[in-house]
Design brief:
This protein is of the alpha+beta class. The chain has three helices and four strands; from the N terminus they run H-E-H-E-E-E-H. The protein has one domain.
């Protein structure tokens, strides 16, 4: 695998984790929104990842030699959580129904915080992999001198 292929694979992971960070942040920012444009409370969203073939001439040659196809991660979709909304009794709330119940978003703050932390760690790992590839390339150039 050459330098550009390893950087391409790492950058695909960085893009995917950035999307996951953005979605988790959006979920946390809307954790108390009871009325959206669509009507009703905000519905939590999740990112769906999938591995896709690496589009790279060198990668294709290498995969033929190894009989395996190099893969990168990609964001396939951002889906809404179909789970039920939380209901709390607050008859003074403007969005309360006739029973005094208010539907709150189905955002689990602890899950979103864990998602933020794991996405940040995965992002850091991707940056470290890119730094390692760059350091190896620089060392190879230094040896070639």
């Amino acid at each position: 695998m050459n330098l550009l292929t390893s950087i391409h694979i790492s950058s695909a992971g960085l893009r995917a984790e950035r999307t996951r960070l953005n979605v988790a942040s959006m979920n946390l920012a809307n954790a108390h929104v009871t009325r959206t444009i669509d009507g009703g409370p905000y519905r939590a969203r999740s990112v769906v990842f999938a591995s896709v073939p690496l589009d790279d001439d060198f990668g294709q040659q290498l995969s033929e030699a190894m009989k395996k196809e190099l893969q990168v991660v990609d964001v396939v979709d951002i889906v809404e959580d179909p789970g039920p909304f939380k209901e709390v009794f607050d008859p003074s709330h403007p969005d309360a129904d006739e029973r005094g119940m208010v539907k709150l978003p189905n955002v689990n703050v602890m899950e979103q915080m864990m998602d933020l932390m794991t996405a940040a760690r995965a992002y850091e790992a991707g940056v470290a992999a890119m730094d390692t590839a760059k350091a190896m390339a620089l060392k190879a150039l230094e040896i070639a001198r």
